[in-house]
Every structure is written in C-alpha cells, then in structure tokens.
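Action item from last week, closing it out:
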Amino acid sequence: MIAEAQFNRATLDCMTALRRQLKRTLGVTIRLGDPDAVESMIGLSRDSSSAEIRELGTRLADMIRPRQDDQAQSPLAQGAIASRQFQHRQENRARLEAESEHAEAPSGSVRIYRGQVIRS
C-alpha cells in the first residue's frame, strides 16, 4: 500500500500507464482502488516479457519505496510550529539518551500538566 507522502501525480501517471500496458498485453484488469493494486502490478511487471512493462514496474517500485531521508526530515521546509516540534523532539531524544547512559532510576514523582511533564 502507498503512503500518502509517496502518492503524487507522477505516481498516479505511472500506475495508470502500467495498468493500461498490463491490460493490453496480458488481459489482466487491475482496479487502482484495490488495496493490493500496486503490489500486484509490480509483481506482474517483473514476470512480463515486455521491456516497457518491466521498466514501468521498476519505475513504480522506485517511486513507492520509502526513502531514508523522509524519516530524518530536516525542519527547513516546515512551518514554524513543525520546526519547533522537530527541535523539541530532538532535544527530548538527546535528553533520554543522556539519561539512559547514566542508567539511574528517576527519583521523585512525575506529573503531566497541560501536556507538560513536571518532575518533583
């Protein structure tokens, strides 16, 4: 299944072209709304004898493959709120890593007030 971030006009155009080629050459009807449509089109394209179908399948597989840079996205292209949230998450990760290195059990009580963690 395709993630929303990977679904764009180029992906849809490639899916449509591959679907048409598969129907024309193999007689297979694939509905784009099916949950496994992309996987079945890629699988059929790998087994095809047509170079054009194999190329379209490879291109579609490259388009939907999750990218590594999406997981570690830079806040440069984000809005102000998203940028602050990104910075806050990075600070929390660094703090948690530092705490885990010390391997000390947290002392005192922890409360959550209006979304903020308060330690006493």
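Closing note: The mean pLDDT is 79.
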